[in-house]
Design a protein that fits this description.
2 copies of one chain form a homodimer.
Chain A (H helix, E strand, L loop, with lengths): L2 E4 L6 E4 L37 E4 L10 E7 L14 E3 L2 E5 L3 E6 L13 H18 L7 E8 L11 E7 L4 H17 L3 H12 L3 E4 L3 E4 L10 E5 L11 H22 L4 E6 L14 E6 L6 H6 L2 E3 L3 H10 L2
Antiparallel strand pairs in A: 1-2, 1-6, 3-4, 4-7, 5-6, 7-9, 8-9, 8-13, 10-11, 11-12, 12-14, 13-14
Helix pairs in contact in A: 1-4
Amino acid sequence: MPELRRDPVIGRWVIIAKERGKRPLEFEKVKEANSVQGCPFCPGNEKFTPSEITAYGKAGRHKDSGEWTLRVVPNKYPVLQIEGSLNRQGEGIYDKMNGVGAHEVIIESPDHFKEIPELTKRQVEDVICMYKERIIDLKKDSRLEFILVFKNRGAQAGATLSHPHSQLIATPIIPKRAKEEIAGAKNHYEYKERCVYCDILGQEASSLSRVVAENEHFFAFCPFASRFPFETWILPKFHSSKFEDIQKNEVGNFAGILQAVLGRLDKVLDRPPFNFIIHNSPLKDPHVPYFHWYLEIIPKLIHVAGFEWGTGFYVNPTPPEEAAKFLREAE
Amino acid sequence: MPELRRDPVIGRWVIIAKERGKRPLEFEKVKEANSVQGCPFCPGNEKFTPSEITAYGKAGRHKDSGEWTLRVVPNKYPVLQIEGSLNRQGEGIYDKMNGVGAHEVIIESPDHFKEIPELTKRQVEDVICMYKERIIDLKKDSRLEFILVFKNRGAQAGATLSHPHSQLIATPIIPKRAKEEIAGAKNHYEYKERCVYCDILGQEASSLSRVVAENEHFFAFCPFASRFPFETWILPKFHSSKFEDIQKNEVGNFAGILQAVLGRLDKVLDRPPFNFIIHNSPLKDPHVPYFHWYLEIIPKLIHVAGFEWGTGFYVNPTPPEEAAKFLREAE
């Protein structure tokens, strides 16, 4: 069972994933497994993953058979486990609890080589619908407080398998980063009685220097205070604090802009490693006027170094206005 | 002039370093310059760095000549610049200011190949004394609020030159990370009337499962809630909120434990890339009973991925008790 431990100064929780337990010289050898041979996410190899949670595919197909178009499985090496109780306890001055939660893998399509920009729009819509379905399902588990949907592409971004996939991790506490963001947004709302993200949308739509793409429901841009080169956010133009409330016609537009933006990043940066993350409300929060969900894309182009770790202050060598210009012109 | 920009939600400042301006395909090619040929930090090549700020060396030597044992120069590509005024201003809903500050490089010795564990103890004492001197000197500049002393070793840890060196960056605002740490420590103090770091020392010294090394004045251990495998902290055993108050006899013991700990990390992890950071009080803070300076070492063994970026929640695959055991046994 993984263990959650709390830093006694900062209050940050850390997951000590004993089951993944690495000995000193095992670190360097970790490379992304790239080949189709033995890929546990390719059709026909279903037996190499834990038994599926759900899937889209042929009507009447058997569980864990090959006739799927999208498949969700538990992570084989989960950072948090679904069984058990939290069992909060002290250890001297420290606090810890059991690593209860969920860690799932969304295998985006049967094709080992097709990333989101190369899939059909319908396939990308399925990926988005599955994110929504999984959140709605896991919400029923009252032990869970927060779900992060994310994607790691490339070994530099933390991926260990190259077959295109996304992940979700459900945590039994609201993470520090989410709390900070919500507190900041709430603060703005209390002062101005406006959603800060709606304000950002308004400003970006009027200046246009950082815009990357837009459609009926979504707006993509490189944020004013981008921490990383080519960092890009996709925001719904309508106010919504919960990703899982996305409607059918919005799903199509979200799929379209996600394909467009990732395609341009691939073109401009020659298929960079990246992470994307959906920033969303905590599971038990009601609809609120101050928070606004969005997807953040971080290409992995630079190494985070001592200054960033020590201060939380990021140094970005590419102004977002320049990054946005490259991405706009890549259309 | 670099530009400081504030994230409107989180309040995090970012440095947009336009002068370092990177075009899309320049990122991949950045590798650490490893050879002695043309190394700007080797003796005889002083003309390849900006003119020195200070140095230790032969009595009566000329500035920027070769007869030095330790040399401090401005960073050639500074993330913050010493000239100019802050000029805080708005840009629509956003806040920005000029990137005023200091960015210096401490070239630890003339030897291109000797890292801290291989230097003489006297040389490491000089490095520590220089950190102290530079902080005391820069403190006189009232525009500056905080100084981070740090070291990046290896390309994976953000180093671009391999000749052993440390750096310092002085910022015109107190960084978010420092504020959080001080707020956490203050909170503990208000509740318990004890320094949280002194409490941690007490607990670690009694359990011993995470201890790495100790001497008369210092204690090294892998923290209970380590974010990274083999993360190690070195704390003074005496309470002190300001690194720059370190006394002559303490400098010797700090040099000794730093050499021992870095030497063991090199042995156990086969010379890993790493960052070290000195956590210190803001420049204008008085001596306080709630904060305690320390040095944090982060070996770069794993990639930070989507989950960590999205939640601030770290997954560490090596329990600190195991890491400490390997480091103790490497003596």
